[in-house]
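Hey, weird one. I pasted the NADH dehydrogenase [ubiquinone] 1 alpha subcomplex assembly factor 3 sequence into the form twice and got a warning about non-standard characters only the second time. First submission, copied straight from the form history:
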Amino acid sequence: MAGIIIREAHFPGRAPIEAYGNGGFRFADMSHRGSLLCLPSGIYGWEPADSAALAVADFERVLEEAADIQILLVGTGRDLRPLPQALRTAFRNLNISSDPMSTGAAVRTYNVLLAEDRAVAAAMIAVD
């Protein structure tokens, strides 16, 4: 008898975020507890090493898909926190416009840009 298999959280498509809060998000009639990366290849569970000090390593999957991303929204939790210079430089070098904002603002902006079929991605830290 096999034990429980834990798989990486992944939704293979693009979908608007229906709700956020209580430590997670709802999208595509599903819910996810924790933070999210919304990329052209799909929606992934995301757990940055330190949500208060985001680093380039936290965005490896974003960098892998950089050719398909023009705008990256970074939901930094309840409050706006600036992105570290190393992150801003990495995104700029790949022609990605990075925009930090509260997670609520990131959800709303992501949904609008997604509806406009823009080359948008989002990295959103869950809020309670």
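That's the output from the first submission. The warning seems to come from a hidden character in my clipboard, not from the data itself. The chain is about 20% helix and 30% strand.
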